[in-house]
Amino acid sequence: MKHNKSILKKTTVVDFKQDAAFFVDRGTRFLNRYDYEKALRSFRRAIELEPANAECHCHLASALAETGQFEASNDVLYEVIEKWDTSMSEVYFYMANNYANLEDYQMAEEMAVRYLQEDGNGPYREDAEDLLDYIYFELDMPPRHFQPSENEDVYSKHERARRSLEEGRFLEALDTLKEIVDNDPSFLPAWNNLSLAYYYAGDFQQSMKTIEKTLEMEQGNLHALCNLAVLLSHHNHTTELIALMDMLKKVVPFHPENTYKLATTMGVLGQHEEAYFHYQRILKAGRPHEACTYHYAAISAYLSGRKDQALRWWQKAKQMDPEAGVADQYIQMVKSEQEGETIKPIPYQYNPTQREVSWEQATFNGVEDFKTDPMIRASLLWALQHGRDEVKFAVLQTLSLIGDDEAETAVRQFYHSTDNEQLQKLALLALADMGAAMPLDAPNPVEKADASLQDVESVEEGIRLYLFEEGQEAAGNWCLQFWAEHQKYAVNHVQVRKSIAWVAALEYVYGAVSHQKKSQAYLAEKYGVSISTVAKCVKVLSKLDFK
């Protein structure tokens, strides 16, 4: 029997260098073959290897645009121009094309003009001019006045402000938007977002003034009219609202951005038939849409009695964003209703149906949710301006737990705006708890506490004087009852000189059992005692059953 012999050959080992350039080249080849999934994966790998390489980001943005993800492409491009290479003027042309594909011709115009301002003889000059010709002549849109490029970068700043609004950083958005309208009063998109920022920050008077200013400049500005309708609804100005709603119901916008704004406004105001009509127009336009658009459309369909259509749109949202799990819960909600369950009202928000977060019950475990939930942040700022004193106390505590720059700004502004000394003291304690610098005109909160809190003759007096006075009746009653139980069963009373320290410990224990936990550091600051003393008292109290 013959046996084949293996022939061994010498091989040369070649260094196979997989750097960012390799993955960019690979991604480009995949893109040319229309293999978008592998192209996106390759460009993202290139960015992982060289995160500061602006060219890699631009390749990713180009691939996203090729797949119809124009908004995601613009997000990447904004990051390029803001973070990686501010001199890359062609980014503005790329964004102009993305906005044109999104049929947001106002922003497309702004980006095209910005590109020509930055690089009038650039490689895309003719293309940018053609795009502007199309906007001005084909769409019959009059050219607008733009500031010279050497002035403030109004468009990038406006986009940052818009993102701040979406992420719940309303005070940050306010500062940016006010600066924009001061520098360029004719820039209407900033005026519209400024009115929203005032609204979410709880300053309804300024919101109304801003809307009125916008309508003075452009009487039929749809965004301003929609904002006005929401504000009138909030203030229960029924007569004016009905008249405005009758007018808005007759409007059929041409541009998708305006259609989306009107659809969402109608939905928020409970006009679900009209909301459904406009969302349906958006989805029939044939361009790519995000999962949240299908979700909002499904809500309008469901609330207008078209439950089969709602299910179809939620299925589409699930297909586009399976990891979010939002659509799954709404699909299950419809099935549960078919089985006889009562369904709660559905807000126009892209959130899970079972997610119920109350800022008034903030804990250290749940506070991360508050940092990223714009609606909770809006309710906090509103309550800090318009709530009862006991509610303001709870808000200050919650903001101290959040502890970011936005929270610090809100607390600092509140300190300067309120004339209530007790609330001023609590604002200072909140700033101290988040490690922020004290206002220049502020006394030391611990010294202030020492002067006013350590002289109580008994724990009961401290509870009545400080918990009940702050409006914390439930906490006060619980602490009085628990302290009585402690006195009854305590064998060896720990020697703590200051009665107020026991009040601090009782408030801490109450917060723990009622899911309104406050840090021992915060309470030590509030009552002017050391953290170790509070901890010692808490350890003693914890020997009893908190229930």
TrEMBL record:
Gene3D superfamilies: Tetratricopeptide repeat domain. SUPFAM superfamilies: TPR-like. TPR repeats lie at residues 20-53, 188-221. It holds the Pfam family TPR_11. Keywords: Repeat, TPR repeat. InterPro entries: TPR-like_helical_dom_sf (IPR011990), TPR_rpt (IPR019734), Ycf3 (IPR050498). SMART domains: TPR (SM00028). PANTHER family: TETRATRICOPEPTIDE REPEAT PROTEIN 6, UDP-N-ACETYLGLUCOSAMINE--PEPTIDE N-ACETYLGLUCOSAMINYLTRANSFERASE SPINDLY-RELATED. This is Tetratricopeptide repeat-containing protein.
